[in-house]
Amino acid sequence: MAVYERATKAVLPEEQFEMFNVYLKKAAEIYGVTYTRQIYEQAIEVLSDNEAKQMCLKFADLERKLGEIDRARAIYAHCSQMCDPRTNLDFWNLWKEFEVRHGNEDTMREMLRIKRSVQASVNTQVNFMSAQMLSAAVAASDGLTDTGKDSMQRLEAQAKVLATEAARDQPVNRNKVAFVRGEVTEPEKEISKAEVHNSDEINLDDVESDDEIKIDEIQLEERGVPDEVFGQLKKD
Q1: Is the pTM of this model over 0.70?
Q2: Basic and acidic residues: which segments have biased composition (predicted)?
Protein backbone atom coordinates (compact mmCIF):
# COMPACT_ATOMS: atom_id res chain seq x y z
CA MET A 1 0.00 0.00 0.00
CA ALA A 2 2.93 2.35 0.54
CA VAL A 3 3.59 2.27 -3.18
CA TYR A 4 0.03 3.43 -3.97
CA GLU A 5 0.23 6.09 -1.32
CA ARG A 6 3.46 7.49 -2.79
CA ALA A 7 1.90 7.31 -6.24
CA THR A 8 -0.96 9.58 -5.17
CA LYS A 9 1.62 12.21 -4.27
CA ALA A 10 3.91 11.71 -7.25
CA VAL A 11 1.35 12.01 -10.05
CA LEU A 12 0.12 15.26 -11.55
CA PRO A 13 -2.72 17.06 -9.73
CA GLU A 14 -5.19 16.26 -12.50
CA GLU A 15 -4.35 12.55 -12.14
CA GLN A 16 -4.66 12.33 -8.36
CA PHE A 17 -8.39 11.59 -8.36
CA GLU A 18 -7.97 8.51 -10.56
CA MET A 19 -4.96 7.37 -8.55
CA PHE A 20 -6.92 7.60 -5.30
CA ASN A 21 -9.69 5.48 -6.84
CA VAL A 22 -7.14 2.79 -7.71
CA TYR A 23 -5.68 3.02 -4.22
CA LEU A 24 -9.15 2.66 -2.62
CA LYS A 25 -10.02 -0.32 -4.77
CA LYS A 26 -6.81 -2.19 -3.94
CA ALA A 27 -7.08 -1.36 -0.23
CA ALA A 28 -10.70 -2.60 -0.09
CA GLU A 29 -9.75 -5.85 -1.84
CA ILE A 30 -6.81 -6.54 0.44
CA TYR A 31 -7.76 -5.04 3.82
CA GLY A 32 -11.53 -4.51 3.58
CA VAL A 33 -13.69 -1.43 3.20
CA THR A 34 -13.08 -0.18 6.72
CA TYR A 35 -9.42 0.30 5.85
CA THR A 36 -10.38 2.79 3.16
CA ARG A 37 -11.61 5.42 5.61
CA GLN A 38 -8.20 6.95 6.14
CA ILE A 39 -7.63 6.94 2.39
CA TYR A 40 -10.91 8.81 1.85
CA GLU A 41 -9.94 11.38 4.46
CA GLN A 42 -6.53 11.86 2.86
CA ALA A 43 -8.07 12.26 -0.60
CA ILE A 44 -10.63 14.84 0.59
CA GLU A 45 -7.84 16.96 2.06
CA VAL A 46 -5.61 17.13 -1.04
CA LEU A 47 -8.07 17.09 -3.94
CA SER A 48 -9.75 20.12 -5.48
CA ASP A 49 -13.24 21.11 -4.31
CA ASN A 50 -15.06 19.47 -7.19
CA GLU A 51 -13.14 16.20 -6.87
CA ALA A 52 -13.26 16.32 -3.06
CA LYS A 53 -17.05 16.66 -3.26
CA GLN A 54 -17.28 13.49 -5.35
CA MET A 55 -15.03 11.69 -2.89
CA CYS A 56 -17.21 12.86 0.02
CA LEU A 57 -20.35 11.46 -1.61
CA LYS A 58 -18.68 8.09 -2.13
CA PHE A 59 -17.40 8.11 1.44
CA ALA A 60 -20.84 9.03 2.85
CA ASP A 61 -22.51 6.32 0.80
CA LEU A 62 -19.99 3.79 2.14
CA GLU A 63 -20.71 4.81 5.72
CA ARG A 64 -24.45 4.63 5.08
CA LYS A 65 -24.08 1.09 3.74
CA LEU A 66 -22.07 0.19 6.80
CA GLY A 67 -24.84 1.58 8.98
CA GLU A 68 -22.75 4.48 10.27
CA ILE A 69 -25.45 7.14 9.91
CA ASP A 70 -23.79 9.71 12.14
CA ARG A 71 -20.53 9.31 10.24
CA ALA A 72 -22.35 9.77 6.95
CA ARG A 73 -24.13 12.88 8.29
CA ALA A 74 -20.82 14.37 9.43
CA ILE A 75 -19.39 13.76 5.95
CA TYR A 76 -22.40 15.52 4.38
CA ALA A 77 -21.94 18.45 6.74
CA HIS A 78 -18.27 18.70 5.80
CA CYS A 79 -19.04 18.49 2.09
CA SER A 80 -21.71 21.20 2.36
CA GLN A 81 -19.01 23.84 2.88
CA MET A 82 -17.88 23.23 -0.70
CA CYS A 83 -21.37 23.26 -2.25
CA ASP A 84 -23.15 26.50 -3.09
CA PRO A 85 -26.92 25.91 -2.72
CA ARG A 86 -27.54 27.89 -5.92
CA THR A 87 -25.24 25.78 -8.10
CA ASN A 88 -25.12 22.40 -6.31
CA LEU A 89 -28.76 21.47 -5.95
CA ASP A 90 -28.01 17.77 -6.49
CA PHE A 91 -25.94 17.60 -3.32
CA TRP A 92 -28.56 19.31 -1.18
CA ASN A 93 -31.34 17.16 -2.58
CA LEU A 94 -29.26 14.05 -1.85
CA TRP A 95 -28.64 15.16 1.72
CA LYS A 96 -32.34 15.95 2.13
CA GLU A 97 -33.30 12.46 0.99
CA PHE A 98 -30.75 11.02 3.41
CA GLU A 99 -32.32 12.92 6.33
CA VAL A 100 -35.81 11.91 5.25
CA ARG A 101 -34.79 8.23 5.34
CA HIS A 102 -32.42 8.15 8.28
CA GLY A 103 -32.95 11.35 10.22
CA ASN A 104 -35.68 13.16 12.14
CA GLU A 105 -37.07 16.64 12.52
CA ASP A 106 -34.06 17.92 14.41
CA THR A 107 -31.53 16.61 11.88
CA MET A 108 -33.62 18.05 9.05
CA ARG A 109 -33.71 21.42 10.81
CA GLU A 110 -29.93 21.26 11.31
CA MET A 111 -29.44 20.51 7.62
CA LEU A 112 -31.57 23.55 6.67
CA ARG A 113 -29.64 25.73 9.14
CA ILE A 114 -26.33 24.67 7.57
CA LYS A 115 -27.76 25.39 4.14
CA ARG A 116 -28.72 28.95 5.12
CA SER A 117 -25.31 29.46 6.72
CA VAL A 118 -23.50 28.34 3.59
CA GLN A 119 -25.75 30.55 1.46
CA ALA A 120 -24.98 33.59 3.62
CA SER A 121 -21.26 32.84 3.53
CA VAL A 122 -21.29 32.55 -0.25
CA ASN A 123 -23.22 35.81 -0.59
CA THR A 124 -20.71 37.57 1.64
CA GLN A 125 -17.83 36.30 -0.45
CA VAL A 126 -19.53 37.30 -3.68
CA ASN A 127 -20.27 40.80 -2.38
CA PHE A 128 -16.72 41.19 -1.13
CA MET A 129 -15.28 40.08 -4.47
CA SER A 130 -17.65 42.39 -6.34
CA ALA A 131 -16.60 45.31 -4.16
CA GLN A 132 -12.95 44.54 -4.79
CA MET A 133 -13.48 44.30 -8.54
CA LEU A 134 -15.43 47.56 -8.59
CA SER A 135 -12.78 49.30 -6.53
CA ALA A 136 -10.06 48.02 -8.83
CA ALA A 137 -12.00 49.18 -11.90
CA VAL A 138 -12.54 52.66 -10.43
CA ALA A 139 -8.89 52.91 -9.44
CA ALA A 140 -7.82 51.85 -12.93
CA SER A 141 -10.11 54.43 -14.58
CA ASP A 142 -8.86 57.16 -12.23
CA GLY A 143 -5.30 56.15 -12.98
CA LEU A 144 -5.95 56.37 -16.72
CA THR A 145 -7.59 59.78 -16.30
CA ASP A 146 -4.71 61.10 -14.20
CA THR A 147 -2.24 59.67 -16.66
CA GLY A 148 -4.04 61.37 -19.54
CA LYS A 149 -4.07 64.70 -17.70
CA ASP A 150 -0.39 64.40 -16.83
CA SER A 151 0.45 63.62 -20.45
CA MET A 152 -1.46 66.66 -21.70
CA GLN A 153 0.22 68.88 -19.14
CA ARG A 154 3.64 67.60 -20.16
CA LEU A 155 2.86 68.21 -23.83
CA GLU A 156 1.66 71.75 -23.12
CA ALA A 157 4.80 72.49 -21.10
CA GLN A 158 7.02 71.18 -23.90
CA ALA A 159 5.14 73.28 -26.45
CA LYS A 160 5.65 76.42 -24.35
CA VAL A 161 9.38 75.70 -24.01
CA LEU A 162 9.76 75.18 -27.76
CA ALA A 163 7.86 78.39 -28.51
CA THR A 164 10.08 80.34 -26.10
CA GLU A 165 13.26 78.95 -27.65
CA ALA A 166 12.03 79.74 -31.17
CA ALA A 167 11.25 83.34 -30.20
CA ARG A 168 14.68 83.72 -28.58
CA ASP A 169 16.49 82.42 -31.66
CA GLN A 170 14.88 84.99 -33.97
CA PRO A 171 17.04 88.15 -34.82
CA VAL A 172 16.07 91.36 -33.11
CA ASN A 173 15.82 93.55 -36.29
CA ARG A 174 14.33 91.05 -38.59
CA ASN A 175 13.20 92.44 -41.95
CA LYS A 176 9.69 91.32 -42.55
CA VAL A 177 8.54 90.81 -46.11
CA ALA A 178 5.26 92.57 -46.64
CA PHE A 179 2.99 92.64 -49.66
CA VAL A 180 3.37 95.92 -51.62
CA ARG A 181 0.36 97.07 -53.53
CA GLY A 182 0.92 98.06 -57.17
CA GLU A 183 -1.14 101.23 -57.10
CA VAL A 184 0.35 104.62 -56.36
CA THR A 185 -0.65 106.10 -53.06
CA GLU A 186 -1.75 109.68 -52.63
CA PRO A 187 1.54 110.91 -51.09
CA GLU A 188 3.45 109.40 -53.97
CA LYS A 189 1.15 111.13 -56.45
CA GLU A 190 1.74 114.47 -54.78
CA ILE A 191 5.50 113.97 -54.81
CA SER A 192 5.46 113.04 -58.49
CA LYS A 193 3.48 116.16 -59.34
CA ALA A 194 5.56 118.53 -57.23
CA GLU A 195 8.45 120.34 -58.91
CA VAL A 196 11.72 120.24 -57.09
CA HIS A 197 13.67 123.47 -57.48
CA ASN A 198 17.42 123.09 -58.05
CA SER A 199 19.52 126.20 -58.41
CA ASP A 200 22.24 124.36 -60.32
CA GLU A 201 19.85 122.88 -62.84
CA ILE A 202 20.44 124.00 -66.46
CA ASN A 203 17.37 124.91 -68.43
CA LEU A 204 17.95 123.91 -72.06
CA ASP A 205 15.14 126.10 -73.28
CA ASP A 206 16.79 129.17 -71.76
CA VAL A 207 20.15 128.29 -73.32
CA GLU A 208 18.61 127.96 -76.75
CA SER A 209 16.79 131.28 -76.40
CA ASP A 210 20.00 133.08 -75.32
CA ASP A 211 21.91 131.76 -78.33
CA GLU A 212 19.20 132.95 -80.63
CA ILE A 213 19.30 136.37 -79.04
CA LYS A 214 23.09 136.63 -79.41
CA ILE A 215 22.89 135.52 -83.02
CA ASP A 216 20.34 138.18 -83.71
CA GLU A 217 22.43 140.87 -82.10
CA ILE A 218 25.65 140.16 -84.09
CA GLN A 219 26.11 142.50 -87.07
CA LEU A 220 28.70 141.80 -89.76
CA GLU A 221 30.93 144.72 -90.80
CA GLU A 222 32.94 144.91 -94.04
CA ARG A 223 36.53 146.00 -93.61
CA GLY A 224 39.29 146.29 -96.08
CA VAL A 225 42.14 143.88 -96.34
CA PRO A 226 45.50 145.45 -95.52
CA ASP A 227 47.98 145.70 -98.35
CA GLU A 228 50.52 143.86 -96.37
CA VAL A 229 48.40 140.78 -96.81
CA PHE A 230 48.74 140.73 -100.56
CA GLY A 231 52.41 141.81 -100.54
CA GLN A 232 54.03 141.58 -103.95
CA LEU A 233 50.81 140.55 -105.63
CA LYS A 234 49.40 143.93 -105.00
CA LYS A 235 52.19 145.69 -106.85
CA ASP A 236 51.80 143.48 -109.90
Answers
A1: no
A2: 188-200
